[in-house]
Design brief:
169 residues; mainly alpha; Rna Polymerase Sigma Factor, Chain: A; Arc Repressor Mutant, subunit A; 64% helix; globular
Length: 169
């Protein structure tokens, strides 16, 4: 399989992960995928052939997304009690509404927890692959995943979950 074919085979997974990272904004997700593919082709000579391609591509996507978020966020964020999101309530209809609730609940998770949950649960990467892709220790992957699962369960159950925001100087 050529390099081009290997990368093309990963595009559906990259698009799915990009949509999840960007909160379902298709145009922003498509831009992120395009930037990821361009960077991968630009840096192709740095890919280590003995390693899996998918975690390397997710690592590139993660870094591009984090860089974009850092550029777009203000230095200090103040949060009013009135601005806190309301807990998601379970709808009477099943399929479509349950999926919408899950998507909204995922959006309420902190970014670090959401990305680990998506890489492990949706993309089926191992803890080691996620750790390499995000450049964090494997133990951090496991603790973020545990917190994400617990928080997601609480949100879906309609329990009030405190929202903490990190304020950087």
């Amino acid at each position: 399989m050529s390099a081009r074919d290997a990368i093309v085979a990963e595009i559906p997974r990259l698009r799915r992960y990009a949509r999840a990272l960007t909160g379902g904004h298709a145009d922003v997700a498509d831009d992120l995928v395009q930037d990821t593919l361009a960077r991968a082709l630009e840096k192709w000579r740095f890919w280590q052939r003995e390693r899996e391609l998918r975690p390397w591509l997710f690592s590139i996507m993660h870094n591009l997304h984090v860089d974009a978020r850092r550029r777009s966020q203000p230095a200090v964020v103040f949060c009013d009690a009135d601005d806190l999101p309301m807990p998601v309530q379970r709808a009477a209809q099943q399929d479509g509404l349950a999926l919408r609730d899950l998507e909204r609940s995922l959006a309420l998770l902190p970014f670090e927890q959401r990305e680990v949950l998506l890489l492990v649960g949706l993309e089926e990467l191992s803890y080691a692959e996620v750790a390499r892709a995000l450049a964090i220790p494997q133990g951090t992957v496991m603790s973020r995943l545990a917190r994400a699962r617990s928080r997601l369960h609480a949100i879906l159950a309609g329990e009030s979950v405190p929202v903490l925001k990190v304020v950087k100087k």
